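Quick start: load a record and inspect it. Here is Magnesium and cobalt efflux protein CorC:
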Amino acid sequence: MDPSSPRSGFLERLSSFLVREPEDREQLMQLLHSAHQRKLLDADALSITEGAIAASEMSVREVMVPRPLMEVVDVSDSLAEVISQVNTTAHSRFPVINGSRDNVIGILLAKDLLRVQREDDFKLRDWVRPAVFIPEFKRLDVLLREFRVSRNHMAIVIDEYAGIAGLITIEDVLEQIVGEIEDEYDFDESDDNIQLDPNGLYRVKAHTAIADFDAAFGTRFSEEKCQTVGGLILHHLGRVPQFNETIVIDGICFQVLRADSRRIYTLVVSNLPEAGDPAE
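Running the structure step on this input writes:
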């Protein structure tokens, strides 16, 4: 083939595009977006790749469920109390505490309760599995690899003073990569976007319609500039908030319970007006 021919030049440019190596993360992202524009990557593949790259730069502290919001059982709880907590939260794993959230002694797997034969001699301590403790600054990609190797699905997060900072699950990590994971035990998107948790706090899905939020909390947020609660937060801040960040708008306090670098998933709402108590 004649090196000066147009076809030869096109092949050289194509080859150069495919084999050139990015020198930094910014160039890598440019290559990925360029591949998407050329339909070499679909939108889902691009989003997952971006999530995986972002996870390598995020720490456990940015994603964990903070200590006050942990769903726990106490080692002194009866079988009926434990089952009630399982049914209320629909979680499959629980930190087991001994009197205080600062004293986590292990993890309970809800499925283990299926093997309990007699309630009268039930002792929760007999069913406690060892807990895995990790520092809050551990990177998510490192933690995901450890979860896969150890086959653990939950870890207790400790701060620099060895105090309990929160917990994190393998689902929390995966959601940073692939987006929010809904299963048959998550609260229903259409009917339960606003939910009262066992701690007396209201959890609100970011995609909750402003009209529904106003109806529940007695607020009067405008729908002209945004249609959802997440959109309200984004419009107010002008950016995506970080995990655990608190935003106050017209007397309503929003705490970010779950978010990644691209979107908000769940908020905790507090400091409600006296006249705005949501209906049960």
